[in-house]
Amino acid sequence: MTESELRLEQLAASIGRARQRAGCAVLPAEGQREDIPVMGGEARHRDCLVSMLASGSKGNAAFIRCGHTKILIDAGISCRRIEKGLKAYGCSLSELDAVFITHEHADHVNGLATLLKKTDIPVYTTRETWSCLGRKAGEYAGRFVRLPRRVGLKEIQIVPFLISHDAARPVGYTIYHGDSKITLATDLGYISHDVELAAAYSDILILEANHDEEMLKNGPYPYALQNRILSRWGHLSNRDAAEFLARIPLKGLMKVLLAHRSEKNNTPALSLHTVRTVLSRGGRVVGQDILLRLACQNGHVRFQEGGNA
Ligand SMILES: [Zn+2]
Ligand SMILES: [Zn+2]
Question: Which terms does the record give in the GO molecular function aspect (predicted)?
Fold first, then answer.
């Protein structure tokens, strides 16, 4: 057990003891952590919906619906799972307007070829990313649209921004719909100035919180892979995400989906604990300034509390 995990265990135990003293709770079974009440990869703002159909190193896909415009960002899970995910929102593959790809890593494009086969939607990405896809999507070259600075698609505007990651030319995306702003920034080694500008004043932010640095350093990954993840071309740690959230400019309550969490080098509890701790040290109130949700790898979980999350 790492030091962070140990601290978390101690914290959970002390909360449990306090509750027991107050006679108001049953302790979780031995060795079991309490449920994290904020699991779920969905957020809404006005008539915009963001749902992480899947998030993590085994596959990523975000469904975004603003008014009548429906897009996917990344198609890293099977087309069947995408279809199932959309169905939960009463949407079918044929209703999608486009798919936007962040970069060519398999966990972001594994389902792309089948998605293109089953639909006639365009695929927007950088020229460098498209060239790297090779056989994965080559036969659909006619559907490729090289990303301009801004894409106008029905009721939304989509603006890509560069991110630092070990891929050909990776990007994140900001979506504007009326005065609503949604930003997706995952698979990034650090928070660059471009990312800061893109994410500022978002209503919904999908932000990577990939690993706990101590868990990663003490975990099963080979040294070279650890270094790759920790580098400026790797992935964002819980702490880096938290420190960014503590200083990001807000226009009101920002709904944040913590995404692309490592299954080996992180836990939902640790991720949430780190972000909450850093935010409160920075004077931000969780639930008042920033609403936190954890996106997860296997399927989206819909919120039960009135849906306005
Ligand atoms: Zn990824
Ligand atoms: Zn990647």
Answer: hydrolase activity
